[in-house]
């Protein structure tokens, strides 16, 4: 058995797979998110660790009910929300709340980074506020008393690794999102670290996703009745999500519907297209890279509208949306609740409902939300296509993939078949478990461990609906962003 742990933004998820790759148990524990100031997004790393322990203990209890003993677990793999800056002092004390991937406070620092010599050549990316390095520049400027005490900077899942093993380590897919990695060469960039004011030993050791980075510490192994199993490097949640559904070969593609919305296309060589905020990162398996478009609020927009309009929960919103006939002159929703990365790279972008009329009902707002997220995702997919990695078939994963209604609407908007696969809704934890498998059993064949799980459904695009979205909705959606962008931009900032 192999245990995968994914530190998502909304919850920690744990999954147990057997040697045939079948999911045998799952568990999760919700996480809270804090927005102490406009554009700030933070979480407490101590809460991550408490939630991880709770998810693991629930998982072991569920596995026990299936007759699986903790000693049967042969390896652990980690994945997590990318980019978050977890800063520790030399005694491994957390110095402040982690600044997350959807935090937009450090746009001024990004402008500085873009002027660094060699920046784009080394990192392959645009400097965007979600990434880790500009957050450290912000700390240097705004919280110097914190900055000078920093001994280590860890990504979210790597903080859990420290708690599990006592080791400082990361993997190349997650490290690529720091802007301290030379992405083509898969190594830390001394130059980018120096320009940030950090020594190389502030970084964890760097590994491929399927490498062993340490072993479960004796106290935890005893408490959970487990062996001191190896802990794999794992991957950033998108790379791990891709491994989980077998998206590991050139031009294969995946769409992740989590808090964020991510379109991920694999490349067998390094490729960089930063112009439209397309991310160029290493994949979690050796010798592979990927391009990615990232929407900062995707399924989280659906939670937002459900709360705002008083639905009991997301399934209630979805059911009502499905019952309501789409009208001509339907309202629009701009999904930029946390600003946007691809293609706009605009921290000032904001969400909006437009086109409201006296007869607008909340189901119209629900449908506008589902559609607005889809149109935003299409912008990102087209940006990746333009970089030369167009894929005809897209596998969908993440919490949002649970809705047949929404995934059909997305296929109609995108105009390509969307494939659902067994375990896809489990998301990145599945890939983390597969990376644990590869690390614990180096003789295992990659093609076997990383095969595509069985197809559970295919959403074929409806030609007439696709034409409607292309001709009627997409041009207006794009125009609305352009027209509203200036309204939300704060005077005196970029
Ligand atoms: N039945 C459902 N249909 C559509 N969306 C759902 C459903 N259940 C949960 N979700 C959405 O899934 C999202 C969480 O997905 P997940 O992949 O776990 O995110 P994260 O990795 O960011 O924590 C939530 O925003 C929630 O609205
Ligand atoms: O910032 C990115 C990728 O660049 C996000 O995709 C985060 O990695 C968070 O993921 P979810 O919690 O939405 O899965």
From TrEMBL:
The record marks 6 as: Important for activity. It catalyses: D-xylulose + ATP = D-xylulose 5-phosphate + ADP + H(+). Residues 253-440 form the Carbohydrate kinase FGGY C-terminal domain. Residues 1-244 form the Carbohydrate kinase FGGY N-terminal domain. HAMAP family: XylB (MF_02220). Catalyzes the phosphorylation of D-xylulose to D-xylulose 5-phosphate. This is Xylulose kinase.
């Amino acid at each position: 058995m192999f245990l995968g742990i994914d530190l998502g933004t909304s919850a920690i998820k744990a999954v147990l797979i057997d040697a045939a790759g079948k999911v045998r148990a799952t568990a999760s524990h919700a996480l809270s998110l804090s927005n102490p100031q406009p554009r700030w997004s933070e979480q407490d790393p101590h809460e991550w660790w408490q939630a991880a322990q709770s998810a693991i203990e629930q998982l072991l209890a569920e596995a026990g009910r299936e007759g699986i003993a903790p000693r049967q677990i042969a390896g652990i793999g980690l994945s997590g929300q990318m980019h978050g800056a977890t800063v520790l002092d030399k005694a491994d004390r957390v110095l402040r709340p982690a600044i997350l991937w959807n935090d937009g406070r450090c746009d001024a620092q990004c402008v500085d980074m873009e002027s660094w010599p060699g920046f784009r050549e080394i990192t392959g990316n645009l400097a965007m506020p979600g990434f880790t390095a500009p957050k450290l520049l912000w700390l240097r400027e705004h919280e110097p008393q914190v900055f000078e005490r920093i001994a280590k900077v860890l990504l979210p899942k790597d903080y859990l690794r420290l708690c599990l093993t006592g080791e400082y380590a990361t993997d190349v897919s997650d490290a690529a999102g720091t802007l301290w990695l030379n992405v083509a060469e898969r190594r830390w960039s001394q130059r980018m670290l120096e320009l940030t004011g950090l020594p190389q030993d502030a970084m964890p050791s760097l590994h491929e996703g399927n490498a062993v980075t340490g072993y479960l510490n004796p106290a935890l192994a005893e408490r959970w009745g487990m062996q001191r199993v190896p802990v794999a490097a794992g991957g950033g949640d998108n790379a791990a999500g891709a491994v989980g559904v077998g998206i590991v070969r050139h031009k294969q593609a995946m769409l992740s519907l989590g808090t964020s919305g991510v379109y991920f296309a694999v490349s067998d060589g390094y490729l960089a297209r930063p112009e439209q905020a397309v991310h160029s990162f290493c994949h979690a398996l050796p010798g592979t890279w990927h391009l990615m478009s990232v929407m900062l609020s995707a399924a989280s927009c659906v939670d937002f509208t459900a709360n705002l309009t008083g639905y009991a929960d997301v399934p209630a919103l979805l059911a009502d949306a499905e019952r309501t006939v789409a009208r001509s002159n339907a309202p629009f929703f701009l999904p930029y609740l946390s600003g946007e990365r691809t293609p706009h790279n605009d921290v000032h972008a904001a969400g909006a409902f437009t086109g409201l009329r006296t007869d607008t009902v909340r189901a119209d707002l629900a449908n506008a939300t589902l559609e607005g997220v889809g149109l935003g995702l299409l912008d990102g997919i087209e940006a990746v296509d333009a970089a030369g990695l167009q894929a005809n078939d897209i596998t969908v994963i993440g919490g949002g993939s649970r809705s047949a209604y929404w995934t059909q609407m997305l296929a109609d908007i995108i105009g390509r078949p969307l494939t659902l696969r067994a375990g896809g809704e489990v998301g990145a934890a599945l890939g983390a478990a597969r990376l644990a498998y590869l690390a614990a059993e180096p003789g295992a064949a990659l093609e076997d461990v990383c095969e595509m799980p069985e197809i559970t459904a295919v959403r074929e695009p409806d030609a007439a609906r696709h034409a409607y979205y292309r001709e009627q909705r997409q041009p207006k959606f794009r125009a609305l962003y352009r027209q509203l962008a200036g309204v939300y931009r704060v005077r005196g900032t970029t």
